[in-house]
Amino acid sequence: MTAQNAAAPGEGGFPPHPLREYALLADGERGILVGPRGDFAWMCAPRWDSDAVFSTLIGGDGIYAVTPVGRCVWGGYYEKGSLIWRSRWVTDDSIIECREALAFPGDPHHIVVLRRIIACEHPARVAVTLDPRAAFDRHPLRELTQENGGVWRGRLGDLRMRWSGGARARPAGPEENRLAMELTVEAGEHHDLVLEISDRALPDEPPDAERSWKATEAAWQQAVPRLEHTIAQRDARHAYTVLRGLTGSAGGMVAAATTSLPERAGEGRNYDYRYVWIRDQCYAGQAVAAAGAHPLLDDAVRFVAARVHEDGPHLAPAYTVEGRTVPDQRRLDLPGYPGGYDLVGNHVKEQFQLDGFGEALLLFAAAARHGRLDADGWRAAEIAADAIARRRQEPDAGVWELSPRPWAHSRLCCAAGLRAIAGAGAPASRQAQWMSLADRLVADTSARSLNPAGHWQRSPGDPQLDGSLLLPPLRGAVSADDPRTVATLRAYTAQLTEDHFAYRFRHDERPLGSAEGAFLLCGFAVALAEHQQGREVSAHRWFERNRAACGPAGLYSEEYDVSQRQMRGNLPQAFVHALMLECAARLAVPWPCS
User: Fold this and answer.
1) Could you tell me the CA-to-CA distances from 281 to 32, 296, 424, 527, 572 in Å, in that order?
2) Beta-bridge partner residues of 190
3) What is the pLDDT along the chain (594 residues), one digit of tens a residue?
4) Which residues contact 484 (CB under 8 A, 6 or more apart)?
5) Computed over its alpha carbons, how large is the radius of gyration of the chain?
6) Spatial distance between the Cα atoms of 311 and 316, rounded to a whole number of angstroms
7) Does the N-terminal peptide bond of residue 572 adopt cis geometry, omega within 30 degrees of 0?
8) What own/partner pairs with CB < 8 Å and gap ≥ 24 does 185-188 have?
9) Cα 145 to Cα 160: distance, rounded to the nearest angstrom
10) What contacts 353, CB < 8 A, 6 or more positions away?
11) Contact 419, 477 (CB under 8 A)
12) pTM of the entire predicted model
């Protein structure tokens, strides 16, 4: 093995790639997006909602890259049942792999990034660049020193950094605050790089690479079930793996790893999704419950129940992974991902979303059916049900977080949650009360939000269809054979779908795909609705169409641009993986009779 000082490849930096070309590394506490040039384009430290140290994804300069020298073509794959990614390049004269992972499970304060460069055939030449910049580029590396054995230490604002395996790297750049080298690994050999970043004092000794790899492999093997009783087992396991990677030690699952990736170029629909949405967490818990009583179900119940106990009828739509208030929204002084601009924080903290209580009840009921709801969970269910009774008449922001109205989906979702928890072993004194409240919600919604054509409409003042209205029948608000269910599914597929891709609602008179991308959650919801109706061929066709809307790493974003076959929005979008997993579990067996 040889090494020499090297600058970043081509001195042209690392521009962002199409979203389909990124892979995710995650350890529960934070995530990394890996591009096809071996570029770590995104990581926040120390937690999901902290400021970024790698930020080329959104126009920053912070980067950590292992890139082949010379011409190459790229590929990659995940090791089964893990978020251990193998970047793979075929060059003119060699085949190179870089095995990459965040040490798993993650420590909330101490990040350990593992990279193993492998020369599969013939010597492998790679350029290595380490240029972390804390606080969205405001704090580059400083106080760089090299210890005995070649280990580098430095500071990034308030963060501490240590890098093992880069002994021959040298400071580079105008201010010498970047480490760079060119490395040659001989055929059949490998070279390990271990990066640590922490907001506390680092351990006395760097981690041993071999032990860290083995511990990470074993932890993933233990964390991800086989999911043998699902269709598309490999993809179902991968969806579970992604959800696990997005779930922290407190049980909270972030909605996505990133911020500000535009849903539509130049239209200002950029949002920070590095927080735990109660609704999304409940979707994930219910999906896992459909596949079995796996640990992510317990995590979801633990996090949601804690928030319900703390905030009661004032449950917020979203929280940080630690269960705290989401920070105010602010703009960053970075260019942003092409087509967008950079924001952190989220205005969702100011909203009321009634359906969150219904989703919480559906989650608790799913846990109860598996015998996984304890006394604390039952008390949370009572709090959520009482909140519905108290606040059901108030306008809310709804599932799509729009202007406050009496959204039909929110009320029907609450009815579904009340029915589900009443039938999941609720105390007799509560069963009749909750079923009666559910009946009133459905009757009131039918009186005010049933379109003259016989299908549910968005709200009393909005006669449009909406993809969210497919969900309440799936959850039991009304039956599968109810004429309103049948009419809604028929009208929705006729008016808001094209070529087995589904859209949320019609924004204006433009063609569907001109206003926004296909919404993958809605596509999977149609698959479930068709399955509920007993139309198995159609259900599988919807499932297969939508599960293909990803890149080589099998990650889903929120929307899919059908005409360009490109992913849009933040990545990876947790609730899409959740609905994909739920489809894989439910389509494997007949829909249960009500």
Assistant:
1) 21, 10, 20, 21, 14
2) 118
3) 544 444 444 345 799 999 999 999 999 999 999 999 999 999 999 999 999 999 999 999 999 999 999 999 999 999 999 999 999 999 999 999 999 999 999 999 999 999 999 999 899 999 999 999 999 999 999 999 999 889 999 999 999 999 999 999 999 988 899 999 999 999 999 999 999 999 999 999 999 999 999 999 999 999 999 999 999 999 999 999 999 999 999 999 999 999 999 988 777 778 999 999 999 999 999 999 999 999 999 999 999 999 999 999 999 999 999 999 999 999 999 999 999 899 999 999 899 999 999 999 999 999 999 999 999 999 999 999 999 999 999 999 999 999 999 999 999 999 999 999 999 999 998 999 999 999 999 999 999 999 999 999 999 999 999 999 999 999 999 999 999 999 999 999 999 999 999 999 999 889 998 899 999 999 999 999 999 999 999 999 999 999 999 999 999 999 999 999 999 999 999 999 999 999 999 999 999 876
4) 446, 450, 454, 455, 456, 478
5) 24
6) 8
7) yes
8) 185/1, 185/117, 185/118, 185/119, 185/123, 185/124, 185/126, 186/1, 186/119, 186/123, 187/94, 187/119, 187/121, 187/122, 187/123, 187/124, 188/119
9) 12
10) 278, 279, 317, 396, 397, 398, 399, 401, 410
11) yes
12) 0.96
> Which amino acid would we find at residue 436?
S
